[in-house]
Amino acid sequence: MALKDEFLSLISHEFKTPISVIIAAVQAMEALFGGQLDTRIKNYIQRIRQNAYRQLRLVNNLLELARISSGQVKMRVRNYDIVFLSSSITRSVVPYADQKGVKLFFSSTIREKIIGIDDEKYERILLNLLSNAIKFTPGGKSVFVRLSCIDSKQGGQVCVEVEDEGIGIPEDQQEMIFEKLAQVEGVQAPGTGGTGLGLSLAKLYTKALGGSLSLKSQVGRGSCFTLLLPDRQADVLDSVAECAACGPEHPIQRVAIEFSDLYPME
Ligand SMILES: Nc1ncnc2c1ncn2[C@@H]1O[C@H](COP(=O)(O)OP(=O)(O)OP(=O)(O)O)[C@@H](O)[C@H]1O
Ligand SMILES: [Mg+2]
């Protein structure tokens, strides 16, 4: 591992432990005294939690990027129904879209499609595209998630589009935003500051899954991110796996971490 990555990974671990302790303490405080606390204290608690989540997202993303560049990330590919997986992930972010007054629609031209995928990595990709779409779309406008299958020279592909009616991305910056720490200049409203790592991670995961991630966008009209994944089943004997994103402990916390910079508490 390069010295820089090793350093980053060490530092990230050192940050992660105290953040996890802060989050656990806040959760315990709410569970034990939630009913007795007055609104002002609840707001402070909410602020601590939101910022701890924010920090955790940054640290997780940095750690993951360091792992990828040192070849340490393994894909756990198993067979999942990509339609069910995508609709579950989309459903899990509805409260955040609602809170902002953004309408969120899911549609699919296929009822079921079993493909080999790493469900957790796919969830990270889709959550990042969704959080961006909701973050950069004003209330009253819409975000669409669409699934379809396409046949191409390279074989069948599953196409997942996340389209928004948001602010759009200038043409000369459309390539750059997939790079680490890159953000479009001048559009970060106070309190909505991400770290510019989400898309670079999404792109690297997509590549590792044998797919591609591309963008079409027009300033003032919106953006459409297109994720193409190979329509190929995993070479495993077991049938369709239970997905981490759909099981009983569906990741309310993972979603909250991804969306933590969207709604600053005042
Ligand atoms: N749907 C979108 N509409 C408009 N701009 C976008 C959209 N998606 C991404 N961008 C631009 O690309 C930048 C990079 O996105 P990326 O997801 O990598 O980082 P981020 O959302 O700022 O932070 P992070 O995902 O690390 O929390 C954003 O800061 C924004 O400037
Ligand atoms: Mg993002």
TrEMBL record:
Residues 10-233 form the Histidine kinase domain. CDD domains: HisKA. Signal peptide: none annotated. Coiled coil: none annotated. It catalyses: ATP + protein L-histidine = ADP + protein N-phospho-L-histidine. GO terms for molecular function: phosphorelay sensor kinase activity. Its EC number is 2.7.13.3. Pfam families: HATPase_c (PF02518), HisKA (PF00512). SUPFAM superfamilies: ATPase domain of HSP90 chaperone/DNA topoisomerase II/histidine kinase (SSF55874), Homodimeric domain of signal transducing histidine kinase (SSF47384). PROSITE patterns: HIS_KIN. Keywords: Kinase, Phosphoprotein, Transferase, Two-component regulatory system. This is histidine kinase.
